[in-house]
Specification:
single chain; alpha+beta; 60s Ribosomal Protein L30, Chain: A; Phosphoribosyl-aminoimidazole Synthetase, Chain A, domain 2; 2 domains; four-stranded mixed beta sheet; globular; thiamine biosynthesis
């Protein structure tokens, strides 16, 4: 049975001679990396645990793809260009068929987005995957909220302004329907909902295209309601969402019905679409910027001043406030947790 160093060399080590900014790759105690001139680093880490973040019996290639995709999505959410990744893989046992599939899924997505695996670790224990990604952004020396312009080459959560539109890319909710399909026994990886759950597409190109048009943004990992609440708190604004404007994909409607589809968009999570705010005058440019990517952009609400004690997300139907149902995912929900919009 191969040892950990042989596993790393066999499945994860690649020729990095052409990778931008890699001064020293795997094989020493640390990787040595150099950001480009006038650039700053964007760094994010996520852990995926078997049975919590992905089904342990899912195809290994999908697990490898998904583990990297959710990390790339964090770079996309800030409009960063992917550069480097670290992988810490914990395995209950050495299964080389599984490792071959996992590595194939991981490397295929990494190559597509130009991100180089520059180091990591393999150890024994319950199956879990921790990935740290590094991206590059132009170095900006201004305040988060510029007094005269929202156009800055970084997407953050704290830049939304009163009157900004709330927009979302693609078809949210599909991954939630895919999870339900998997739990019900569906194993057809060509099913569009199941594919959205097992092999999400990080919106890296969309983040780069929109980073100077949007005022604030993040990726949808825990549902639109919960994630929009993060923007509201960071920007000290409320948001009104129009239920009738939520994008409901035909496949999502077929799988869950209209009410279930809306619930999936609002609270389902695992979509990794981009949820953004932007001035209304930037909308047409944003739609045009996404057209070459064959990616839609839907207006679902508007940012507004806080009424009451704290920012909140308000659901409306034709301008009439509606009661919210359900709650976005949290690993450790507080005992007194209330609905996002309460």
């Amino acid at each position: 049975m191969p040892g950990e160093f042989e596993l790393i060399a066999r499945y994860f080590q690649r020729d990095l001679s052409g990778a931008p900014g890699v001064l020293l790759g795997p094989g020493d105690d640390c990787a040595l990396l150099a950001a480009g001139d006038g650039m700053q680093l964007a760094i994010s880490v996520d852990t995926s645990v078997a049975g919590v973040h992905f089904p342990p019996d899912a195809p290994a290639s999908s697990i490898g793809h998904r583990a990297l995709a959710v990390n790339l999505s964090d770079l996309a959410a800030m409009g960063a260009t992917p550069r480097w990744a670290l992988l810490a893989l914990t395995l209950p046992e050495v299964d080389e068929d599984w490792l071959h599939g996992f590595a194939a899924g991981f490397h295929a997505l990494a190559e597509r987005h130009g991100i180089a695996l520059v180091g990591g670790d393999v150890t024994r224990g319950p199956l879990s995957i921790t990935i740290t990604v590094h991206g590059e952004l132009p170095l900006v020396l201004e305040d988060a909220v510029h007094p005269d312009s929202v156009s800055r080459p970084i997407l953050r959560r704290d830049g939304a302004r009163e009157g900004d539109l709330v927009v979302i890319t693609g078809a949210p909710g599909m991954a939630h329907a895919g999870l339900k399909a998997w739990q019900s026994g569906t194993r057809d990886v060509l099913d569009p909902c199941l594919a959205a759950y097992l092999r999400p597409e990080p919106r890296v190109e969309a983040g780069l295209a929109l980073r100077q048009l949007a005022s604030a943004g993040l990726d949808v990992s825990d549902g639109v309601m919960g994630d929009l609440a993060h923007i509201c708190r960071a920007s000290q604004l409320s948001a009104a969402l129009e239920l009738g404007e939520l994008p409901l994909a035909p496949e999502l409607m077929a799988a869950l019905g209209e009410q279930g589809a809306r619930e999936a968009v609002l609270n389902g999570g695992d979509d990794y679409e981009l949820l953004l705010t932007m001035p209304e005058e930037h909308l047409e440019s944003a739609i045009n910027a996404l057209r070459p990517l064959n990616l839609s952009l839907s207006v679902i609400g508007r940012m507004q001043a806080v009424e009451g004690s704290e920012p909140r997300v308000i659901l409306e139907q034709e301008g009439v406030e509606q009661a919210a149902a359900g709650r976005s995912w949290q690993h450790f929900p507080p005992a007194d947790a209330t609905e996002v919009s309460s």
